[in-house]
Amino acid sequence: MKKWSEKWRRFATGALDMPQDLTMEMPRITMIGQLQMYIENHRGVLWFSNQELRLLLTKGQLLIRGQNLVIRAILPEEVLVEGVVDQVVFLDE
Fold this sequence. Notes:
It holds the Pfam family YabP. With about 90 residues, the chain is of the alpha+beta class.
């Protein structure tokens, strides 16, 4: 059943010309240099410190490492992070 649903999402993305981040439940990440990140479509904050942020995704986690990290804004599915971002890693389920 899970494979059918994923195939349907891929079809809808192509046929309806919809953004993949919406149909495939993927995060949308916007970075301004190393100083700011805006992440949409996350499922919650798992861990936060001034050097690391872990976000839960529909499939896996997003790990952000850096220096002087600060969460400037947080909403149920969006987060704005500022600081010096050194590394962004996708972790599998």
